[in-house]
Amino acid sequence: MDSFLSFISSISWWIWVLIVLALVAIRDIFFQKKHTISHNFPIVGHIRYMLESIGPEMRQYFVANNREELPFNRIERGWIYASAKSENNYEGFGTDRDVYAHQHIFVKNQMMAYKIDENHPNAKDKTFLPCAKVIGAYNKRKKPFRPASAINVSAMSFGSLSAAAVEAMNKGVLKSGAYHNTGEGGLSPYHKQGGDVIFHFGTGYFGVRSEDGNLSMEKLTNLVENNPCIKAIEIKLSQGAKPGKGGVLPGAKITAELAEIRGVEIGKDVLSPATHKAFSSVQELVNLIEEIAEKTGLPVGIKGAIGKLDQWEELADIMLKTGKGPDFITVDGGEGGTGAAPPSFADHVSLPWVYGFSSLYKLFLEKKLTDRIVFIGSGKLGFPAKAAMAFAMGVDCINVAREAMMSIGCIQAQSCHTNTCPAGIATQNQWLQRGINVPLKSDRLAQYFKSFRKELIEITHASGYEHPCQYTMDDIQVNLDDNELNRSLAFTYGYNKAKVPFNGMQELYDCVHLGGKEYMKNEPKK
């Protein structure tokens, strides 16, 4: 035995390397049948696969320039990170963006900017920017709601996101006066940290699900009654990542906690169908909206990615005829989001936000229905200039998903669907989640929202307005092509948005329906 150990120890390290490589080569050539490259090129093939696996990271940090990455480039991510950390988010020496590029946005400034006096709400709080409309006011809901923030957290479920991420976001919206959309995974304990909540459900009816997989009105009314943090209810018709497609939650992912929150069985696959069971026509959808609003007292809205407009026009006609319908409409862009989807859906199904929203808004504008509805935009709008454009097109507030994730540490690893998110945000891996410092990350989300609102207010004042709801389609121009150079939004999309009733920021500040009560009460004025 001693002689054998002595023989082993006498072998040089480089010989051991050769032995291991030889064994790998034998395995590749004679035993593994799955990978042609490693079979034909043993050892070298493994190096190729390794380089391919880290290719996105290599391109992100060493190859791509500051403006060319998708879905968010380095400049955009850097602005969010700096804003969330209260760091310098300015640029020096002029823009490095190609201002002649297709669809570049120009916000037209006024010769003399809007001036606020010393008693103005924005003199007291430079980040105060609530929604100019009250959700549910037109339909006289029992509990109307005015969002206290023009920017809010979009629909992202617990289960898709980690517990730590959801908790950090809810504490962040509490500190910034925003609201937090639950996503279709149900209301979890992590959504109940004090922030205003929009309860969102889809075809799976998670959290308000009957035994046969339908919507339980009893569970929904009980949920609202027992959770006063819920300010409105949103019915998801479709989402930008995969409109018209259902999904499967594998049983292996369903823990006891997830099963209780979603109202499903532990360890059993759960199907989210492509269509709803609770309604099968536009009229039935309107009936359901009215039933939920009557039984809960809350405003009720719908969310959808836009494609064909025939059923949307049917909805508008029903609203005209009956005086009933949704209190708000969230328009999602076909650019996709945190939801995993096949490339065919993510790349091609449903319209990008600017095309989808402009088509839908124009339809409701022509039927004189825009005053009844609060329009919410969702589709890479978490930057002040893009938000100014969205307000000019007709939105009343915006939701952000990936931008909110980046504010709490997302590095755009694009592994949301693999359960291996290195930032601990889009994973249920307990070890990875431990990297999220909830108090710190909640502060960062709140600071991102405040920085966003402050900069949007400053852009608005530069344009001569007090609130971005006053923007018109002629206040923003976009580059079209070489023949047209640049044109106003009104020319580009073929309509002028309806005027939003607005009597000054002070009226919004004094509104009894204003959300973010804790933020308004506790936030030190700046």
TrEMBL record:
One BP annotation, GO: glutamate biosynthetic process
Residue ranges crossing the lipid bilayer per the database entry: 6-26
Family per similarity comment: Belongs to the glutamate synthase family.
Signal peptide range in chain numbering: none
CDD domains (UniProt xref): GltS_FMN
Keyword Transmembrane in record: yes
Keywords in alphabetical order: Membrane, Oxidoreductase, Transmembrane, Transmembrane helix
Source species of the chain: Cellulophaga lytica (strain ATCC 23178 / DSM 7489 / JCM 8516 / NBRC 14961 / NCIMB 1423 / VKM B-1433 / Cy l20)
UniProt name for this protein: Glutamate synthase (NADPH)
